[in-house]
C-alpha cells in the first residue's frame, strides 16, 4: 500500500516484524532453562525446535503466515528474512549418568533461589542424575519451589526445626551427621557421593568428564575419597543479587596463596569405604585403610588443606561472599553447622589479591 504522501508502509511492517521476532526470541531463550534434556543432542534438538517456532509465531503474529489457496497449494508468501541465533550448549555436555554411579548430597536451608543454577550446572554439565537434599527446616519446604531439572532426579530429606537447636552455637557437627546419614541411607545405590554446598560449582579442567575421572580412581583400592581445591570468588564489586546468576556475574576470584581459603577442599567419597568425617570438607576415617587424595594422588590429611594448590584436572569454584546483599542474607540465616560468616571473612576475601575468573561465564545452560 502506498500512502498519499508517497511513502510505503512496508518499512514500518518490516520493523514491526523484527520487533515481534526479537520479543518472541527473548521469551524462547529464557524458557530454555526449564527444559528437561539429558544430552547435547537433545539440547540442540530443543534449540532447533524453538527457533522454528519463533519464526512461525512471528509470521503468524503479523498475519504473514502461509495460507493454502483454493487448490490446496501453498501461496508464495514472501516474509522478511530473520537471523535467529540460539546458543548451543557449552562446553560439550557429558553423557547422563543414568546408572547413578555418582550422586551429590547437600544440607540446605532457605536457599531456594540458589538451587536452580546449582541443579542446572550439575545435571547438564556433569551428568548427575541423583541429588539428595537435606532440608534443614526451610519454611516453606525447598521442594515447594520450581526447579529446571526433572523432579525425579531429586530426593528430599526433611528435618523439622524443632529437631535441632536454633541456637547456632549448639549445632556443631550437624552437617557432618547429615552427610553420614546420607551415606548410610543411600550409599549402597552409588559408587561415589559428593558433599557440596549450593554455592560450589565444579569445573573439569583437564578434559575428562566427572564420571571418567571418578571411574579412574575407583581402580585404585587404596583411594577412598578424592578432594578438589576451592577457587574462592569475590563479590566482584556487586552490591545486589545479580539477575544472571553467580557463574556469569562473579568473575573475580582470589589468587592462590598457601595462607588463604583456596587451600580448602571438598570431597567425593567412595561410599563402600566411607567411615566418618572430620568436618564438612573431608573424610576422617575410611574402611580398609583407604586414604583421601588430591587430583595427583597426594594424601590429604585431617587439616582438609591441600598444598600445593592445583586444579589441573578439576577445580571447585566457591561463590562464598557473592554480592553484599546476599552476604548479609547468608549471615542472617547462619551456617548449617553453626556459627555465621563474619565481616572479617568478607574483608579477607574482598581485600585479597584477585584475578579474572571467567571460565564459568561461558557455560550454557
Automatic annotation (TrEMBL):
It comes from the Eukaryota. Its main location: membrane. The chain crosses the membrane at residues 20-37. It is found in: Membrane. Pfam families: Glyco_transf_92. Keywords: Glycosyltransferase, Membrane, Transferase, Transmembrane, Transmembrane helix. One of its GO terms (molecular function) is glycosyltransferase activity. It is a single-pass membrane protein. One of its GO terms (cellular component) is cytoplasm. Belongs to the glycosyltransferase 92 family. This is Glycosyltransferase family 92 protein. It comes from Alectoria fallacina.
Amino acid at each position: 500500500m502506498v500512502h498519499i504522501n508517497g511513502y510505503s508502509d512496508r518499512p514500518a511492517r518490516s520493523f514491526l516484524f523484527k520487533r515481534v521476532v526479537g520479543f518472541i526470541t527473548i521469551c524462547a531463550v529464557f524458557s530454555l532453562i526449564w527444559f528437561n534434556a539429558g544430552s547435547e543432542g537433545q539440547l540442540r534438538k530443543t534449540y532447533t525446535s524453538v527457533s522454528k517456532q519463533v519464526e512461525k509465531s512471528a509470521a503468524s503474529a503479523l498475519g504473514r503466515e502461509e495460507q493454502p489457496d483454493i487448490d490446496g497449494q501453498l501461496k508464495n508468501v514472501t516474509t522478511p528474512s530473520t537471523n535467529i541465533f540460539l546458543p548451543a550448549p557449552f562446553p560439550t555436555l557429558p553423557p547422563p549418568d543414568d546408572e547413578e554411579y555418582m550422586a551429590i548430597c547437600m544440607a540446605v536451608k532457605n536457599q531456594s533461589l540458589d538451587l536452580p543454577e546449582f541443579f542446572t550446572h550439575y545435571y547438564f554439565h556433569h551428568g548427575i542424575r541423583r541429588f539428595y537434599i537435606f532440608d534443614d527446616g526451610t519454611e516453606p519446604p525447598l521442594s515447594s519451589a520450581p526447579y529446571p531439572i526433572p523432579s525425579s532426579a531429586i530426593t528430599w530429606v526433611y528435618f523439622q526445626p524443632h529437631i535441632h537447636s536454633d541456637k547456632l552455637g549448639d549445632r556443631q557437627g550437624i552437617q557432618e551427621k547429615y552427610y553420614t546419614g546420607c551415606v548410610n541411607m543411600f550409599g549402597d545405590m552409588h559408587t561415589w557421593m559428593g558433599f557440596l554446598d549450593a554455592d560450589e560449582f565444579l569445573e573439569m579442567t583437564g578434559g575428562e568428564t566427572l564420571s571418567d575421572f571418578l571411574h579412574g580412581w575407583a581402580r585404585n583400592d587404596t583411594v577412598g575419597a578424592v578432594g578438589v581445591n576451592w577457587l574462592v570468588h569475590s563479590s566482584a564489586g556487586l552490591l545486589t543479587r545479580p539477575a544472571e546468576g553467580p557463574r556469569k556475574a562473579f568473575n573475580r576470584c582470589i589468587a592462590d596463596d598457601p595462607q588463604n581459603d583456596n587451600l580448602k577442599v571438598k570431597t567425593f567419597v567412595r561410599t563402600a569405604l566411607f567411615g566418618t568425617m572430620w568436618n564438612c570438607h573431608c573424610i576422617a576415617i575410611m574402611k580398609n585403610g583407604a586414604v583421601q587424595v588430591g587430583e595427583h594422588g597426594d594424601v590429604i590429611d585431617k587439616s582438609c588443606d591441600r598444598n600445593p594448590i592445583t586444579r589441573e584436572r578439576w577445580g571447585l569454584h566457591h561463590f562464598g561472599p557473592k554480592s553484599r546483599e546476599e552476604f548479609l542474607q547468608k549471615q542472617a540465616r547462619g551456617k548449617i553447622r553453626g556459627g555465621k560468616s563474619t565481616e572479617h571473612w568478607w574483608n579477607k576475601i574482598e581485600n585479597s589479591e584477585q584475578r579474572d575468573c571467567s571460565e564459568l561465564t561461558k557455560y550454557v545452560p
